[in-house]
Amino acid sequence: MKRDHLTYLPEKGNIRPVIVQHLAEIYHHIYYFFCHILGIFIELPDHTEGYKRPIVCVSGFLGRGLTWTAMRKHLISLGHPVYVVPLGFQTGNIRKKSKILENFLIEKNIKDCYLICHSMGGLIAAGLSYKGRDRVRKIFVVGSPMHGTYMAYLAPIFPCTWQMMPGSKLVKEVVETYSKFHNVQAVFTKGEGIVRPWESATLGHFDDVEIPEYGHLNLYLGPLGIECLGSLVTSEEKKEPLPIKQKPAVKEDMKKETVASAPSKKVSTKTTATKKTSPAKKKVAKTAPKKAKPKKKR
């Protein structure tokens, strides 16, 4: 496997101290757990407004839509419509999750979009059929165990963990699928706590991006991970930007004309009213009461 890759550094400031990174990862695990519980009842709404290409977020193992709150806010500020796929408890068969993702893209009529997939979400995106792939412009796999992870052996009670074990049939299909497509980019960290070994989260491409911080959840919940993914999407968008939609000037001109002509109509109505009333006065003048003739005395 090739080891050539890129490293993302913060645009402002320095990388957080290692102790802060570990504390942040612990906090994110607690946050992740509560989002999993609350996510049963609460889902993030679709943000359909934006002048750039849409982005679809795909959660990982036990992931819920609420965990994308900070990432979603940042992507919306960049001008993108953002959708979060509701995938349930994220413990079932990965192939079925791929079908749910595909149906979501078709039902929402999402085209030419970016997929940001965290952890197991990268394996879900790999299972899209041609109907779903035709709607995707690029896939960003963030901390995804493309080659499997040894941590899956710790929870063999779920169907998805069996599929994420190294050497499984699904893992081999994922590697084969992503090796055929050039529109897939991996984002990973060497300080992985879930994807073991960390090389499993890479594709071996020259444009694989390393985030030099510790933590599996820091990759998309931490500020550096959010900044990195926003920057990657922006650079991809600049290659072929969408034309900015402008309001047609004809309608604005029509509005101005109507506004300008409105007073003139009032004036004209007044003049016509005066014209109409003037003959009436003449008639009144003509039909003035005649002087009564004196009665003859008997």
Automatic annotation (TrEMBL):
<dbReference type="GO" id="GO:0016787">
    <property type="term" value="F:hydrolase activity"/>
</dbReference>
<keyword id="KW-0378">Hydrolase</keyword>
<feature type="compositionally biased region" description="Basic residues">
    <location>
        <begin position="278"/>
        <end position="298"/>
    </location>
</feature>
<protein>
    <submittedName>
        <fullName>Alpha/beta hydrolase</fullName>
    </submittedName>
</protein>
<dbReference type="InterPro" id="IPR029058">
    <property type="entry name" value="AB_hydrolase_fold"/>
</dbReference>
<feature type="compositionally biased region" description="Basic and acidic residues">
    <location>
        <begin position="249"/>
        <end position="258"/>
    </location>
</feature>
<feature type="region of interest" description="Disordered">
    <location>
        <begin position="240"/>
        <end position="298"/>
    </location>
</feature>
<feature type="compositionally biased region" description="Low complexity">
    <location>
        <begin position="259"/>
        <end position="277"/>
    </location>
</feature>
